[in-house]
Amino acid sequence: MQSQAVKQAGTSSRIHMIRRGMLAGSPIMLGYLPIALTYGVLASQSGMSNSELTLMSVLVFAGAAQFLAVGMLAAGTGVFEIIVATFVLNFRHFVMSFSFVNRLKKIALRAKLPMTLGLTDETFTVSSLYRREAKEDYGAYFFSALIITAYVSWVGGSYLGGVLGDIMPQRLSESMGVALYAMFIGLLVPSVKKHYRIAVVAVLAMIINYLAQQIGFSQGWAIVLGTVAGGCSGIWILPEEEEDI
Questions:
Q1: How far apart, in whole angstroms, are the C-alpha atoms of residue 214 and residue 83?
Q2: CA 216 to CA 44: how far, in whole Å?
Q3: Phi, psi of 143 (to 5 degrees)
Q4: pTM for the full predicted model
Q5: Are 124 and 101 in contact (CB under 8 A)?
Q6: Residue 156 contacts residue 54 (beta carbons within 8 Å)
Q7: Are 135 and 106 in contact (CB under 8 A)?
Q8: 116: number of CA atoms within 13 Å, CB side?
Q9: Distance of alpha carbon 117 from alpha carbon 61, whole angstroms
Q10: What are 190-244's pLDDT values in tens digits?
């Protein structure tokens, strides 16, 4: 009887942590749905089938990289260039994964590694706010629920956007393309507010991108060069105390 009571208490604790994780992930879900819808519509209008654009969300799960890939695909960029560009853009995920794994010291490594596959800027940021849960029993259930809530909303929103892309008027769907630029500007502005020199890095990357295209590089390789060169320039442009921004 005692062992059964302990087992029931453990099950109840797991369910409680899952519910808390879903609640913590609900703001991310609300933010992801409109962006995922926009991605689905744009991907559908660029020629991707609904299964293709949904599968990209299932396998990639990175909004900025997926928008970039869709834009490059619409421009006729080669597959290899798209892969390299999205890899460079998502390289920060390695750093976030190491930080995430190191932060959850009490959770077993076999539970932490799968969760790193679901890390995005948003899930990483929100998870960092819940340090107490990392030390509690069944903390892995909390963080897993948080990440899965965000993941399901992104994949579901992508699929729904693909469906809408097939029935939405062409003019309306084309106007949604501004969301791509709005999203990148939205990511840039908070960092620029912290330090104006980040704007210098961004402008330098844009200039390198433009010049690379002018001397004959394709759009895909120009993006890669601009991203890499702009990022590396931050080593010298940004002051030492701001390098972690």
A1: 22
A2: 29
A3: -70, -35
A4: 0.76
A5: no
A6: no
A7: yes
A8: 20
A9: 9
A10: 767 777 788 888 888 889 888 988 888 877 778 778 878 877 887 787 765 444 4
